[in-house]
Amino acid sequence: MHKQIYIHQDDHPDLTDDELAGKVLRYIQYVSLIDTSNLSVTALGRTVILSGFVSCEAEIGCVEEAAAAVIGVHLIENRVEVIRH
Description:
This protein is α+β, with helices and mostly antiparallel strands. The chain has helices spanning about 15-30, 55-70, and strands at about 40-45, 45-55, 75-80. The chain has a single domain, classed as Histidine-containing Protein, Chain: A. The chain contains two helices and three strands.
């Protein structure tokens, strides 16, 4: 299976909510070494909602910073939690 990565052609302003959410998730995967298999990204307009689980507190901030850096994102609601083993 071919994994699509983030590319700057994603940076056009007329994205649907699903396109923006996909763009944010691809960017998080592109810029971080974080396991994103337990993350979910939803976009409502220019607001992005991050949810799911990461392995440590530091990754919560990394995910939020990466999402905020994406062109088209104006507000982040971060619901990401640390998974408890």
